[in-house]
Specification:
Elements: H1 7-16, H2 22-90, H3 95-111, E1 114-117, E2 123-125, E3 131-133, E4 144-149, E5 151-154, E6 157-160, E7 162-166
Parallel strand pairs: 3-7
Antiparallel strand pairs: 1-5, 2-4, 4-7, 5-6
Helix pairs in contact: 1-2, 2-3
């Protein structure tokens, strides 16, 4: 196996020495070099295998997470489908039922890390990183703005800015 002293250094030392061991020393060094090359190749293959296993594991975990969300959404989706069918047949749709289904979806996503930015109709201090102005107003950071559409973060990452407008003075 490979020793602490470099193979090239030992090869140079063997070539400079005057003893009769040159062919044997050079052969030994070639053997060590070949063994080291084999070790490097083995480690490369092992690394490639571990990388592929890790990639497959990440894909499985992502698939399982999506499957979990889909299975939780199955009941609200079934309710929504039934509501759609009833509306097509009878032309009626209870808004409270529709809002209940929407609430179920929001709860499922909130449990997974979705966070709402702002509540429609409320005022918040303007933050250009979190708010997009809809009416062309250009408030200074910290000035109050009226939330018209909520924004969202997912696991701390901004997904959609809250859409806001200027606060109307009365």
């Amino acid at each position: 196996m490979w020793s602490g002293r470099g193979i090239l250094q030992r090869l140079l030392a063997a070539l400079k020495s005057d003893d009769g061991d040159k062919p044997q020393t050079a052969a030994t060094l070639r053997l060590e070099l070949a063994e080291r090359d084999e070790d490097i190749e083995r480690l490369r293959k092992e690394y490639a295998l571990l990388r592929e296993q890790s990639k497959a594991q990440i894909e499985r975990a992502g698939g399982e997470a999506v499957e979990s969300i889909v299975s939780q959404c199955a009941a609200p989706l079934a309710t929504l489908s039934a509501m759609q069918s009833r509306h097509a047949e009878k032309g009626d749709l209870n808004p409270a039922d529709l809002l209940q289904v929407a609430s179920s979806f929001r709860k499922i996503l909130a449990e997974r890390g979705l966070e709402e930015i702002g509540v429609v109709g409320e005022t918040q201090p303007y933050d250009p990183a979190l708010h997009q102005m809809l009416d062309g107003a250009r408030p200074q950071p910290g000035e109050p703005v009226l939330i018209r559409f909520a924004g969202f973060r997912f696991n701390g990452k901004l997904v959609a800015k809250a859409q806001a407008g200027a606060v109307k003075s009365t």
